[in-house]
Amino acid sequence: MTKRSDWGEDTLLNHPRRVPLLPGNDPLVAPIHQSVKFQIAEEFSYQEQFIYSRVSNPTLRQLEETLAEFQQTQECMVLASGIAAISVTLLALLKSGDHVIAFREMYRPARIFIRDVLPGYGITASILKLGDSAELERSIIPGKTKLIHFESPTNPNLEIADIERIVAIARKNQILVSMDGTFAGIHQHRKSGIDLMIHSLTKFANGHGDVLGGSVAGEGKLIARIRNLAHLIGASLDPHAAFLIMRGLKTYKLRYEKQSRTAQEVATFLQTHSRVQQVYYPGLGDHKGHELAQKQMKDMGGVVSFTLEHSRALKAKNFCHRLQLIQFSISLGSTESVICPTAEFFGDDLDPQERRETGIDEYSLRLSVGLEDSRDLLEDLRAALEGE
Ligand SMILES: *Cc1c(COP(=O)(O)O)cnc(C)c1O
């Protein structure tokens, strides 16, 4: 072969020299392996090596191992988004003829996927009321119901699921349970008997609102089933996104705890304000899931939902536009506070009765608290509530 010193310019540019690291001289921050493909080494089997990043990549693996260890589960898989983690998990665990149970108090796209998309694959679904365990037991079809999927706290109105009860019903009937724990974050509900714990890493885990990502954690055998399908569906996370999520995780606990403290202050302020009709926050004593939340959770999270006093006829949408500091935007769990009306963004697929029963109307809002000083947030809310 031609010597390196005799190579043409294009060859040189496309085969740069590697900079080797001495043993023990590793970078303190794990690097981004931003490469789709890897050199295939002669001395190892294909299974042992990284080959193609849709299937395996060291930066993705780093994030998976970090999340599995932190969540105290055997295995974890990361995917391109939270909704990819949900849809791939459901498709991997269910097949034509199976039945799945979910709840109407749930993230809108997940509800639509279960209710409207899965039946096209021969998978039927029952969408129940979250708190009704008698209805849950009645809805199980022996031999057909294979999975119960739920959220806690729920998006957008922070209902709290009785996890112990759902898990007990599932165990008794030999049904798997998957939970979307996005609102509770990755440090809660770790030893609750859930078979598959799903998170949108886009939210609190990454926490900076700059990348999408999702994860599903559980026993190795179940994650292997999900992984096999995920490789065929191709909803893989990009290594650069995984790197940013790794960086975000370092301050995860600090952010989640501060956001929970601020959210408690905001919820308390809203609750005592005459122009607010109802506040949904599990940290408030009169929230219907307060006792369960206290039993199951340590931090109540950074999302506060509330309804404006109807008699004043200030619609949620108009209220959002009045705020100056808090931005009218969607998503949650990142550094800046955002607010949006719940009816348009999370409830337009529910019928009027379901909307009423889940506390969604044209006066209702979901606020995600960021890292700002709480007094600035309270003042912004006060001015928007009291202004004409
Ligand atoms: C945002 C969200 C998701 C979806 O996550 P993406 O990363 O946006 O796909 C799923 N579940 C809940 C509860 C969410 O809030």
* Physical arrangement of strands within the biggest beta sheet: 1-7-6-5-4-2-3
DSSP strand (E) fraction? 15-25%
Q: What is the percent of helical residues?
A: 25-40%
The span between the termini is 80 Å
Average pLDDT taken over every residue: 97
What is the H/E string? HHEHEHEHEHEEEHHHEHEHEEHHEH
Largest sheet: 7 strands, mixed
Hetero compounds = pyridoxal-5'-phosphate
**Low-confidence spans:** none
The tally of beta strands, per DSSP, is 12
Helix/strand/pairing category: alpha/beta
Question: What does this protein structure show overall?
Answer:
The chain is α/β, with parallel strands linked by helices. It has helices spanning 9-14, 58-70, 82-93, 108-117, 133-139, 163-172, 220-233, 239-249, 252-271, 290-296, 316-322, 342-346, 352-357, 374-386; strands spanning 75-79, 99-103, 124-128, 145-151, 176-180, 196-200, 214-218, 276-280, 303-308, 327-328, 338-341, 364-368. Strand 4 (145-151), helix 6 and strand 5 form a beta-alpha-beta unit. The N and C termini lie far apart (80 Å). Bound molecules: pyridoxal-5'-phosphate (PLP). Pyridoxal-5'-phosphate is lined by residues 81-83, 107, 151, 155, 180, 182-183, 200, 202-203, 212, 214.
In a nutshell, what does this entry contain?
This protein has helices at residues 9-14, 58-70, 82-93, 108-117, 133-139, 163-172, 220-233, 239-249, 252-271, 290-296, 316-322, 342-346, 352-357, 374-386, and strands at 75-79, 99-103, 124-128, 145-151, 176-180, 196-200, 214-218, 276-280, 303-308, 327-328, 338-341, 364-368.
